[in-house]
Fold this protein.
Amino acid sequence: MRPTRVALLDGGSMAIDGYKVYWNRGPGGDIRFPVYSVLVDHEDGLFIYDTGFDLEHMTKFVPQDQAIQAPDQTLPGQLAKLGLKPEDVTHVLSSHLHIDHAGGHKHFPGATVVVHEDEYAQASNPPLFEKLSYSDLNYDAVLTAKRDKVEPPAGAFEPKYRFIRGDVEIAKDVWLWETPGHAAGHYSLMVKPAGRRPMLFCGDVAMTPRNLELLCLGSFHLDPTRAIASLQRVIKLAEEHDAEIFCSHSMPDFVTWKKAPEWYE
Ligand SMILES: [Zn+2]
């Protein structure tokens, strides 16, 4: 059996105000933060958890988030560092479908997209305040048409989906824990590499460790009550499994982590 290993793929960075990272707390001022994907090389397949943002989309439609991405920070560029190609990826595991977590799904048209069924439903019919968050659904012409309430073009591309709810062990020692609130159907990922303590990627439940320490949400959330419960759940899961928590958007931590072409194994 092939030992499970994990690589972090650097997808560039964005900047938002401190009051958006720490709701009603701040301090204010731009915080530049990393966007990354988690690649899991497993006996059962090559999984990628989240796919970052698409630079062209961000520059055109969300310039206020000041996205920066060098050519080698695209997913094909990052996979090449590991000697891999987008076609090698078998499953895209979605924490949720926001622009900075699903912007690279389009690179994997042959992969199965694993997503919470409530998240797909939310992306297909977002309320006004979430429209920008779900503005990049370019990997799925059928979903885009649903959201825009138009007929899909003839022969429109729709990825293969696996819709899930509840906690799911996707493959041995690869868990998706249901952690909603930030988004309708949000998942955190826990992986146990062969020779290391489990790694718990909590997605946008906590952008940074300070969100966890203060039990302070970011200002983007669908349901703050469920989002707080998810913060508490992540802390509890980490304790129960002796897992190391990796927050989604913390630059001081990200710069210290191993990135592709290195593996956690
Ligand atoms: Zn998000």
Notes: The domain at 5-254 is CATH 3.60.15.10 (Metallo-beta-lactamase; Chain A). The radius of gyration is 17 Å.
